[in-house]
Design brief:
The protein is mainly α. The chain has one domain (about 10-265). It has ten helices and no strands.
């Protein structure tokens, strides 16, 4: 099973890899103007390499904790279900039911479990549909971070006293997570999609504020028709199915005695 405490080496790998992943996402906001330092084309390739290496390093760290066959089986079942759920609607207009299951499972089983489930669910759905490309490591990271966030919420002490609040909080988190995923995907797609000569393109060497403004306009103009349906579907599924699924997941947790990861243990 998962260890109740993560080795310091694993904690460092997860933290450093997440920082590297964040850099791989956000480089268009602050890339230097001089091509002698880092050209836009080479930065695209470098960001892909960094994201892939970072996600691999995290899984090496997580692998140190997956010793119990019951936990591996549980993770495999949930990943398969979540990957299949993503196929429902095929992402049309942002309708992706996978997020509600990822959030609920991560909320119960903890942040480390959520990281693994989020990344593996995206990879599974990509294999099923053949949607494998340079965007895949970024999708895996964004989903994994959503899993971490839900896992940390699950360890909030206030929810242990006010259990009635958990569905409302999870619905709110689902809306935020849907928008977060959309923002992160747009951010990694932005430099690949637009040329340098449009009003919405990033400008190498421009200030972070200027590039951030350009990106926000690009995001609002192109993605809200996807992000809003994703947020609504996620929140409604948590509202109507959340209580029953949380009960089932808690029973599974008790059977395999899987402790939820505390924030300090991520």
């Amino acid at each position: 099973m998962f260890n109740t405490r993560i080795p310091l080496s694993s904690l460092l790998i997860i933290s450093i890899s997440s920082c590297v992943g964040l850099v791989a996402f956000t480089w268009p906001l602050y890339i230097p103007a001089s091509d002698n330092v880092l050209s836009a084309s080479s930065a695209k390739v470098l960001s892909l390499v960094l994201a892939s290496a970072a996600i691999a390093a995290v899984f090496i760290a997580i692998n140190q904790q997956l010793f119990d066959s019951k936990v591996v089986a549980l993770l495999g079942i949930l990943v398969a279900l979540d990957g299949a759920l993503r196929l429902v609607g095929a992402g049309a207009a942002g309708i992706e039911p996978m997020w509600f299951l990822l959030i609920l499972a991560s909320y119960i089983f903890g942040a480390t479990f959520g990281f693994a489930m989020g990344a593996l669910s995206i990879a599974t759905s990509a294999l099923l549909t053949g949607a494998i490309g340079p965007w895949l490591p970024f999708q895996m990271f964004a989903a994994a971070w959503i899993g971490i966030g839900a896992g940390l919420i699950g360890n909030a002490r206030i929810l242990q006293k006010y259990r009635r609040l958990e569905l409302s909080l999870l619905m709110f988190f689902g809306v935020i997570a849907a928008e977060f995923f959309g923002i992160m995907m747009d951010l990694q797609l932005w430099p690949w999609l637009l040329s340098r000569d449009t009003q919405l393109s990033y400008v190498a060497g421009a200030s972070v504020v200027d590039n951030l403004h350009r990106f926000i306009v690009f995001h609002l103009a192109t993605s809200m028709s996807w992000n809003l349906p994703r947020a609504v579907v996620t929140a409604l599924l948590i509202l109507f199915a959340g209580r029953a699924i949380l009960g089932s997941l808690r029973r599974a947790q008790r059977k395999i005695t899987l402790p939820a990861m505390a924030p300090a243990e991520l």
